[in-house]
Amino acid sequence: xxxxxxxxxxxxxxxxxxxxxxxxxxxxxxxxxxxxxxxxxxxxxxxxxxxxxxxxxxxxxxxxxxxxxxxxxxxxxxxxxxxxxxxxxxxxxxxxxxxxxxxxxxxxxxxxxxxxxxxxxxxxxxxxxxxxxxxxxxxxxxxxxxxxxxxxxxxxxxxxxxxxxxxxxxxxxxxxxxxxxxxxxxxxxx
Length: 190
Description:
Layout: H1 13-27, H2 34-40, H3 45-51, H4 55-80, H5 84-101, H6 103-110, H7 125-138, H8 147-166, H9 175-183
């Protein structure tokens, strides 16, 4: 992958990535084309292709930026939680808020960029930072269990809740109960 595909955005690419994020959230990824991105970002189409190989590279750059923003939100939640028992609930709320507020970017992060996984040989730092924040939030609750496995499970549960909720597969009136169950009885403090 090139640097742009991994999110090392070249000069001028920031406007394209920001525009792609905004267009995707407003109109969906189908509306995000190279021509529209160049037009809306006030960039020549040739300059667009100098920075990004194709539309997929832009989607990957948006995903990497999405992971950076998610990691920052999780860091803020973790560091401002009042006590160690409030960290996981705060991180859970921040994760869900990001996912529900940015559904198209969330899809770019998890559905449109399969190579942005923790299992890949080269994973962007922002993906690793997101995982590290989840691990940091759950490590105090590990009680002798593997913190990485607990973080993977926590991430899986959060992601599953997001996707099932967005797909209308879960009862809307039970959302608060699900979040409470996820943050307290499933991961009780040691």
